[in-house]
Structures are given as C-alpha cells and as structure tokens.
Design a protein that fits this description.
37% helix; 21 strands; alpha/beta; 19 helices; 564 residues; six-stranded mixed beta sheet
Length: 564
C-alpha cells in the first residue's frame, strides 16, 4: 500500500536562478517542498556599477542542483519543469555561442546582471524622449531594464558584440531555450523589462527613437517575436541533450518562465485563506499584494483593469497571473536579514550595511556566537531587553532613517536619492546598534507603506499583504510591516515560495492543472498570520509623517547646494 501511494504522487521541479546562486526544489502536487539544493554561481565586477555573469556557469549550476533534487525519485512521477531567474541580459551569437559584454573580450562573461548600472546615460536619454510606452513603467524607465543595456552595447561594443549578436535573451528565457531549443520568450519578461505590450506587441517608434532601429529591421527576431504566457508548455519539452544534463527524462514538459520576484508572487498570492478571518477572504485576489523580500523587495499587486501608478512599474497584462494586470513596486535597498542564498558583494544590502558598519558590530558578533544565535535573532532579543515598559517600536521616537541608500525605485523613481539617519548620539554601544537596526527595519516598512499608498491612490484596493523571501523569516521585520501598514501579513507555509512558484509553472505546463489560478490555490499554502497592533497606529502615523519630511529636506538641501 505504501508503494502504491508513493507512485501516485506527482512531482514538479522548480529551478530558481538568483543573484549569486541557483536553487532547485522537488515540489509535490500539494505545494510541499520535498527536497531542495543550492549551488553558487560566479559574479564579475570589472569596474564600479558593472556586474557580469556567465550563462554557461549558470546552466551548469542548474544541472547540478536538479540532479540532486531528483536523485532516487521515480522519473515517471516528475511531470514538469519551471524556471525563474533574475532579469539579467544574456547575449549569444547566431550559433548561440556566448558573446562578451565587456571590453576585455571575455566571451564567457556574456550576461549583464539585473543590478548593473552601466547604462545610466542611455536610460536618461530614453526617458528624455517621453515616449508613450514609458507610461507602462510608471513614467520613468529603470536603468535595470533591458533597452538601456542594449543601447549601451551598441554604443560601446558595436563591432565585438552588437553586430555579431544573434539573440538577446532575458535570463529566464535563456533557460527555457537551453532546456527546449525553442527561442520563444515569456510574456512576463518581455512586458516587464523590454516594453512589449500584450495588446500591441512591439512599438516600432520606440526602438527607432532611442536609436535601436536595427531590431525593427529583422522583425524583432533577436529579442523575440514568438511569445508565450507564463506556464504555457514550450516546444516538445526537454531535448535529449538537456534531459541528460539535468538528469531528467526526455520530453518532460517545460514551462514558459517567470522573473524570480514574479515566481515568488505566484507562489503566495493565490493561496486559499478560508478559515483565517482575513479581510481578503471571499474577496478577489486583487485585494492582495505579494511582497517578495530579498536583496531588493518587490511589491506585486494585480487588477482586473489597467491601473497606471506614477512611479510603479506596469500595468502589465498577464505578466504574473493570466488575465490580470500587474503593477510592481520595489525597493532597491532592503538587504537580507536572514541569508537563504548566497548574495553578491554589492551596495544594496542596506540593513547589513547599517549593522555591520557600526562600531559595536564585533561585540554583537561575539555575543551572538556565545549564545548560538544569528546576529539578528540576538538583536531582536536585545531590543526586548532594553524596551522596558514600552512597545519595541516606540524606542525610535527620536531616531529616523530614510532607507534609499541605493536610490529610490518606487514610488519616487529617483536613483540619485541617498540614505539618511536623523537622531544620532555619541553612544557607541550595543544599545545604539540595536536601535539603528530597528529604525532601519521601520524605514523599509515605511517605504512599503509609501508604495501601497501610491497604488491605492491610483485605484488599487489592498487589504492584505503576503510575504515571502529571506526577510520574511525575521519576526521583527514582519511585525513592523503589519503595524506600519495597518494590514495583516500572511506568511507562506513554505519559506521557499519562489521555488514553489517555479514548480507551479511546471505543473501548468504538464497539463495537470486547468489554469495557473487552480495551481496557485492548491499549491500555495498559508503558514502564520501576523496582525497589526492598532493601538500603535498613532505612533506609526507620526513616524510616517517624519519619513516623508526626510525626503523633502534632502531635496531641499540638494537644491540649496546646487544653487550656491
């Protein structure tokens, strides 16, 4: 009987390529992560703001982790494979061989990472056109999107790369091509990072006005003229070569992919909430926002009709949930409190930057190690010790942080903004470190409130947050988000929600579910619910008022200095 029950279970493989590691999970039809594995990948930083990777290195890591998670499993039970990845740019020639994205001619380094900011001048010129397509990215294109990177390649590597290039892939699409041999692109990547629109496709006038008319002439073959919805089956499934490399049977269904944050949203936002007394119960999924908290944070909200939110990316039709419009807010400077995957040495790990840069950090390390705790668990406990009769959050009544250490992505779309700390004293001890840690977490949550208010002012109706990612493991981070936004926070039962989201894609491609919505409801599971303490509302309303004043003052003093 045990053997019969085992063979009836259906499994799906989710593969997630993060900034510095690749992870894979074997997930069953009920959304349970049976096993998972992780493999680091290389990052090169040849000069400031230039971050590069190798598509060969990334694919090799995909093969290593996939073989690990499917080892010992009956291949007949594995029904589908789904990929998600960072929105990095992969360049290959007409024979699909890697092309260098650097002046050193290192062909193995053929990926410009998502966080690469080499194309600042190019994106400024693109935004200066005020083309109508920019309305779909909140009015201002980000340097992390693909058009400015393509323009940089044309202007700086014309002979060595631009003219030799056969295909430009978003990394999630490169992975589905590698698995199937089909160059089809995902609607998710093209609408979110390349300016494709689901109703009109490519806009010739945009590419011509920014100086990339070459792409129009070949009918967009290099960047994608065959588009699939996320979760749709690609080609005939795994090729013999890819199947051998991944340790899977030939022909297994491969899904059109997602960007990693969108996979996280898919893994949590559609979960069945019945019986938890949440305001989103018996409400459409449009009442929810998925907050994916990692190196950066992404705020994913969906709507039945297009909603244009100034400073928030989108609306993108069917980019995450088929049939619904997606808006995506974001914070580029949240950092990780709990490392669930390896991260690059880059300037956006803001909370770690604040904590590790403090003079009391060695003392914190020593005491945390002596108590066999992580430094953040120790800091949370230390805050409980020093709060006395006050609620923990009230300790920062005179300490305030503006969190944009790496510029503001949403809703101000200002890369030039800097971080601010107001209320420093001469204290240099552990108490002071704990307080600035708390104030920084609160600032990130206040930034989330800022984004949510912009979305609500434009027409979204949001009553519940769904959190996943490394930061969601920190109870202080979660409680501050509940208290500061005034909304309940739902945590996924499976911490690895991004991997569950990738597996949901594979499940849909296999045909085992009639729709992504059905798979989301069955495979997305609720864990803990954290509710706001409404008695603290007045305090956090005042903190938010100060928060908004900080950016006003920063802009004011910058204006003064420019005029001097």
């Amino acid at each position: 009987m045990h053997s019969k029950k085992q063979t009836s279970v259906k499994y799906y493989v989710g593969i997630d390529v993060g900034s510095a590691s690749v992870r894979a999970a074997l997930v069953d039809e009920f959304g349970t992560v049976v096993t998972h594995a992780e493999q680091p990948i290389q990052i090169w930083e040849p000069q400031p703001d230039h971050y590069e990777q190798s598509s060969a290195d990334i694919w090799a890591a995909c093969c290593v982790v996939t073989k690990k998670v499917v080892c010992g499993v009956d291949a007949r039970q594995i029904r589908g494979v789904g990929f998600d990845a960072t929105c990095s740019l992969v360049v290959v020639d007409k024979q699909f061989q890697p092309l260098a994205v650097n002046s050193q001619g290192q062909n193995n380094r053929n990926v410009i990472m998502w966080m690469d900011h080499r194309a600042v001048s190019q994106v400024d010129r693109i935004n200066a056109t005020q083309h109508r397509i920019l309305n779909y990215v909140g009015g201002v294109m980000s340097v992390e999107m693909q058009p400015p990177k393509l323009l940089w390649i044309k202007e700086n590597l014309r002979e060595s790369c631009w003219e030799k290039a056969g295909y430009f892939f978003d990394l999630p699409d490169f992975l589905s091509w590698k698995a199937t041999g089909v160059t089809a692109r995902s609607l998710c990547t093209l609408v979110c990072k390349w300016t494709y629109t689901s109703d009109g496709g490519w806009d010739d006038s945009f590419w011509k006005i920014i100086g990339l008319e070459d792409l129009v002439k070949d009918k967009y073959e290099k960047i994608g003229n065959h588009v699939l919805s996320p979760g749709e089956s690609v080609g005939k499934g795994l090729t013999p070569e890819a199947a051998k490399e991944l340790g899977l049977p030939e022909g297994i269904a491969v899904a059109a992919s997602l960007i990693d944050a969108h996979a996280g949203g898919l893994g949590v936002i559609g979960a069945d909430v019945r019986g938890h007394n949440l305001p989103c119960e018996n409400q459409p999924v449009t009442s929810r926002v998925a907050l994916i908290c990692g190196t950066s944070s992404c705020h994913m909200g969906v709507s039945e009709t297009p909603i244009f939110v100034p400073g928030v990316w989108g609306p993108y039709f069917s980019a995450m949930v088929p049939g619904l419009w997606l808006n995506e807010g974001g914070q580029s400077a949240t950092g990780k409190l709990v490392k669930t995957r390896l991260e690059p040495k880059c300037p956006i790990l803001q909370i770690e930057h604040v904590v590790q840069g403090h003079v009391a950090f060695p003392e914190l390390q020593s005491k945390a190690a002596a108590s066999a705790q992580s430094i953040y668990t120790y800091l949370n406990s230390h805050l409980d010790l020093i709060k006395k009769s006050l609620p923990v959050g009230f300790l920062t009544v005179d300490l305030h942080v503006w969190p944009d250490f790496h510029g503001n992505r949403s809703p101000l779309t200002d890369l030039t903004l800097k971080g601010m700390v107001v209320g420093l004293t001469l204290s240099r001890g552990l108490d002071e470190l704990a307080l600035i840690y708390l104030a920084t977490i609160q600032a990130v949550a206040l930034g989330t409130r800022h984004i949510l208010e912009a979305m609500e002012a434009a027409g979204h109706h949001i009553n519940t947050l769904f959190l996943c990612g490394g930061l969601s493991k920190n109870p202080l981070f979660v409680q501050m988000h509940a208290d500061i936004t005034g909304k309940p926070v739902v945590l996924s039962k499976e911490v690895e929600s991004v991997l569950v989201g990738a597996a949901i894609l594979g499940a849909c491609a296999s045909g085992d579910f009639a729709s992504i919505q059905e798979a989301m409801a069955k495979m997305g599971k609720i864990g803990q619910v954290v509710r706001p303490n409404h008695e603290h509302k007045r305090f956090y309303d005042k903190k938010y008022e100060v928060f908004l004043k900080l950016v006003e003052h920063q802009r004011e003093y910058r204006s003064i200095m420019k005029s001097s």
